[in-house]
Amino acid sequence: MKKITIRDVAREAGVSITLVSFVMNAKRDENGQLDCCVNKDTAKRVLEVARRLGYRRNQAAASLRSGRSKTLAVITSDIANPFFAEICRYIENTAYVSDYTVIMASSDEKAEKMDKLIDTIFGYNVEGLIVAPSPGSENVLQRVLDTNTPTVLIDRDVKGDAFGRVMVDNVNSGCMAAEYLIGKGHKKIEMVSYDLGISSFSDREKGYMNAMKKAGLGSLANVRCASYDNVGNDVVNIFKDAVKRGVDAFILPTKSLSVAGFKALNSLGIKYPDDMDFVCFDESDVYEINEPPVAHIVQPVREIGEKAVEVLLNMIAGKKEGKDVMLQAKLFGE
Amino acid sequence: MKKITIRDVAREAGVSITLVSFVMNAKRDENGQLDCCVNKDTAKRVLEVARRLGYRRNQAAASLRSGRSKTLAVITSDIANPFFAEICRYIENTAYVSDYTVIMASSDEKAEKMDKLIDTIFGYNVEGLIVAPSPGSENVLQRVLDTNTPTVLIDRDVKGDAFGRVMVDNVNSGCMAAEYLIGKGHKKIEMVSYDLGISSFSDREKGYMNAMKKAGLGSLANVRCASYDNVGNDVVNIFKDAVKRGVDAFILPTKSLSVAGFKALNSLGIKYPDDMDFVCFDESDVYEINEPPVAHIVQPVREIGEKAVEVLLNMIAGKKEGKDVMLQAKLFGE
DNA sequence: TTGAAAGCGTTACCAG
DNA sequence: CTGGTAACGCTTTCAA
């Protein structure tokens, strides 16, 4: 099972390896015609032989010689997180149609792993990087910038002029959530958030506050914080207290908070939505199955993935404009 | 921003490139000592210089020369499917500790895409492949076998002696589900399945039937089929009919069937678990949040991922034994 | 429109 | 222990 090289094809087709290289790299125009300076018949013969022999370009060699690799890398904190998994899916899809291969990796939120990952990944001469930065990765990202590798940030922001960005308008998401509940006639609307110091949370809080103020409910607005490691208990306690104070509704700005919210409702014997109404975030079977279904705000994962690749490929191509994209989330209510 | 090569390191350290190559490839033994024939001090100096210059091995060159790539590929039908996403996560983790990089791709269940994927992936000289084969991919997998690339099948089986396999004992899963319901005193226990001709389904059905027969309930056993594209309606109709016939409980052998099951319950006004009991499969927030929580059977995703890599690395190393692994699912009930 | 030849940065071999 | 040197398979001038 010897590997077929460009040389084998050349010999078999009776041409030089240069020609084979030309043909194999030629793009097809809209008519399916080979767009290169090689004689049509020669090209056809080469293609024929290559197919018959089962030739496959050796990426390593191509990459070594050309410096390009037709490879992108994606680093998220955890590819098992459905939000990121779905984004990756669309990234992969979009990259695929431009003939790019994608390497994905999870940083585990650990700077050390992120560091080693970067090392490995850059060994592969990736042409570009898409990252959902975890808190504390600023210095690692700086190292990335130092290599001049085009990089697009998604989901979370980090300072740096050279980055491309595909973000979601979280201020508006928080605002939409609040306005939806206000529209249903609720007044005492509060929010449970995490105290992680991540921009997406503070933005959602900000949007919520803005909407409350705009509706003249500013004095009733209240953001409570749960700790990430002890969501369950924290939410139960927050709800207990909230019931005493006659809170009508909560905004739960992540899926994990929402799930904790429903569990808390169960354990406290509070009825959704009559005793306590919700607007949740992200997607969960629970939102659909519940009777009535739960209003929730969904991030445009598909667009995030697609735009991220688009922006990245533009950066790789050296274009300067259009590096910043802001997307809108969508509310699903009745 | 010139790239630092092995040559730069050699010059700076005053040694030959050969030596640098030796040092950079040396593994560290348990004492953190370099395990190679190079002089300790020289090695230390080289390492020092490499770090100072920010040297990173050029994978493309290494791979071209050595034929090895330290890269594995994973192909599932859809990496956004949480089941696969989680497996991928563990694959990545496990590969990582053995210094392997992972390329992941989704076949979309389309043979054509799978085909192009294989082409691309093999261009990268991957050393091994982990695949969750979609129905109809037998011929593509045959092409893979032809290249002599070690390949491990997960989740679904396909004929072929050369494959490694990491499977879950679905017969036993079906059996466990049935026995759990029998243990709760139910008699009229039925199952809703898909008619996709995939081994995991037929195995779960088989296990269910076995358990029913063993309990003397063989005559009550009944497997109904829903179509994949119209689950919602099909399940509603199946449940309507089941209620008439006094069915106590259903086994729902996938998450999508389970979700459809709960929706159907809602729309028909049937109460879980008093009117109708369930054993579901996979993981969902619904199972946890529901009051009482829903018994469900979870596949050992972590072990699947870890074992798959382990088996694959063994195959790459040329070991012949231990290519087949059978794992057990676990039931979460009260 | 075609071909010869020079590398790309490593590793592997062989000689010292 | 150390170093010289020939590949690896491809892309990319440059020349014909």
Give structural notes.
Two copies of one chain form a homodimer. Chain A folds into three domains: 6-57, 434 Repressor (Amino-terminal Domain); 68-168 and 301-327, Response regulator (Rossmann fold); 170-298, 3-Layer(aba) Sandwich (Rossmann fold). Chain A is built from 13 helices and twelve strands. Chain A has helices at 6-13, 17-25, 40-53, 59-66, 82-97, 111-123, 138-146, 170-183, 199-214, 231-244, 255-268, 285-289, 301-316, and strands spanning 71-76, 101-106, 128-131, 151-154, 164-168, 189-194, 223-226, 249-252, 277-281, 296-298, 324-327, 330-332. A six-stranded parallel β-sheet of chain A has the order 2-1-3-4-5-11, sandwiched between helices. The first copy, chain A, has a six-stranded mixed β-sheet with strand order 7-6-8-9-10-12. In chain A, helix 5 (82-97) links the parallel strand 1 and strand 2 (101-106). The model of chain A has no long low-confidence stretch (mean pLDDT 92). At the A-B interface, helix 4, helix 5, strand 2, helix 6 and helix 11 of A face helix 4, helix 5, strand 2, helix 6 and helix 11 of B. The first copy, chain A, binds a DNA duplex (16 and 16 nucleotides) through helix 2 and helix 4.
Summarize the helices and strands and which ones pair or pack.
Two copies of one chain form a homodimer.
Chain A: H1 6-13, H2 17-25, H3 40-53, H4 59-66, E1 71-76, H5 82-97, E2 101-106, H6 111-123, E3 128-131, H7 138-146, E4 151-154, E5 164-168, H8 170-183, E6 189-194, H9 199-214, E7 223-226, H10 231-244, E8 249-252, H11 255-268, E9 277-281, H12 285-289, E10 296-298, H13 301-316, E11 324-327, E12 330-332
Parallel strand pairs in A: 1-2, 1-3, 3-4, 4-5, 5-11, 6-7, 6-8, 8-9, 9-10
Antiparallel strand pairs in A: 10-12
The structure holds a DNA duplex (16 and 16 nucleotides).
